[in-house]
Request: fold
Amino acid sequence: MSATPQYRVCPTTGLKVFGATQALIKANAVAAVVFLAVGGLFGLSVALTRWPDVHLLPMDWFYLALTAHGLDVLLCWIIFFEVAVLYFASSVLLNCRLAAPRMAWLAFWLMVIGGVLTNITVLQGNSSVMFTSYTPLQAAPNFYLGLIIFAVGALIACGVFFGTLVLAKDERTYEGSVPLVTFGALTAAIIAVFTLASGAIILVPTWLWSLGYISHIDPLMYKLVWWAMGHSSQQINVSVHVSLWYAVAAILLGAKPLSEKASRLAFLLYIFFLQLASAHHLLVEPGVGSEWKIFNTSYAMYLAVLGSMIHAMTVPGTIEAAQRRLGFNKGMFEWLRKAPWGNPAFSGVFLSLVLFGFLGGISGVVLGTEQINLIMHNTVYAPGHFHATVVTGTTLTFMAVTYLLVPLVFQREIMFPRMAKLQPYVFAIGAGGISLFMMAAGTLGVPRRHWDITFADSIFPYQIPSAGFLMMALNGVCAILAATGGLMYIVNTVASVFFGKRTGDAPVKTYAATPAQAMGRPVVADYGSAGTMYIPGTIVLVGVFFVSFVLYYYVNWKYLAEVWPLR
Amino acid sequence: MSKNGAASGADQPEAAERIPFWQRVCDNPFLLLFIGVTVPTVFYLIWGIMEIAQIPVAP
Ligand code: HEM
Ligand SMILES: [Cu+2]
Reply:
């Protein structure tokens, strides 16, 4: 235990930033960005291979790149960034030093070693088992070992988060309940514990199996337990990026949540029910019954979807209420028209909110419904869906937050502000495009993870409709756009972090009426609602969302009826 | 848990003495952790594993 630890007071938010916390946030964020760069490159090469006229990589390289892509972006990029967010939400928002910074560094290095080990193993070529590594496909032992080491590191980081909550409570560094953003991060950390424990339960035996100590891993059992990790980890992402939506609204606009209670209830529903949705990955497995499938993916899941619906209402509502308080009160949509669209932190968050909801949310419920899932299961619709959630949702939000992270935590100016301004739009269009076109191709029957959809050397010839080929080509075009947006982000972030002008104690531009320091407790770390429910614009937007949702849902039932005509 | 709740009456419009049940739940991270791990373990993992374990082995 160190004596009085060092901190500085952030000039923008008025929050205490402890030295150890700051260093750890920096380290984790930098590692995240490095893995995004590597993984993004693999993603582009995969997309260009799946563009039938380009068909970039040979078959073995395609599966290698696909494996590396999934691991680097879904696991490394996202989880490193999330660890940074956990430290922010505990230590910074609760005004408390980080519990056990040594352990946090251990966690960091374990994650680095694990991530690098898995990458090296994949690049050696005998581990192209893809992200899911379904048995009986077998990777080299170090593939699993790397993942296990990474997971242990991440679990320790969660421990540091919980430790910091306890420390803050003991030292009374905050009053009453934790702020909403911390509560959202807590939701994420709880889901993470289940996720990582499930990962250990399945990966340790699989590792032993690849070493030859265990003779057999049952493929269905593997799938079941693996998805307790694979799916739940996506729910960590949702919890974290929704928390960040509230955080960015609070920091930039001084926005208080519309209703603390409603937002917390939504997170609570996540804690209770969200992880059960893992079952949607087994919807076509014959070995588990319909009761299990429907209970886990429908009945219980809809309660978690209710949580998301609440956020879908309260996040834009929170922004609208704040904007109206700042005086943008004319008509239905002045608050939206006059929002800080030139600020990449804001535009990134808002684009992410819209794309995540419309593309990711709707397609997720469709895919998670046992009956209509049959039309799309294992088609490229699935990657279409999850690029909407995890790329236009989580990744875009993390990018947006980086534009605050660099000045606030790294205390450097963004080196290329013009590029930063444009970047969220380029990335959003590109990533929205790959999501949409992969979904379209999947609806036309294009399989996922397939190197050659002409099936040239197949014993059973099959002709995908030519529109399917067109969709995969459009996917390739959008992939180039998304990769460009990704590159703009990476170049700008790396340049700013290492070579940007030091900002020292100059505050970052925000739009709140009163400067943060003057408000006593900074909004992002405060408790309390906006105190208004006058959000007509949001109600219209949410109405449009619901109508799209219902229409699309029923279109798919209609489509199912045509796939299986009852004549 | 919520012993220090009385100190935080400032921003609570309702009576400060009795903290509502759900707020007490939300203020207890380890209770939430317990629930968040148990629910999926029981309904997803254990129930699912039981179903798979009951599949007869092929002769
Ligand atoms: C430049 C941006 C990106 C492009 C162009 C891209 C493109 C693709 C493509 C074409 C596939 C293969 C679909 C298939 O053949 O089944 C894929 C798979 C995947 N992508 Fe991306 N992606 C990008 C970014 C991301 C990001 C940021 C994430 C996560 C945060 C992500 C997560 C995944 C995952 C998990 C898979 C599945 C891998 C597997 O099937 O094993 N992607 N991506
Ligand atoms: Cu899932």
About this structure: Residues A 40, 43-44, 46-47, 50, 66, 69-70, 73-74, 77-78, 130-132, 380, 383, 387, 390-391, 395, 434, 448-449, 479, 482-483, 486 surround protoporphyrin IX containing FE (ligand 1) (CB under 6 Å). Residues 29-53 of chain B form the longest helix (25 residues).
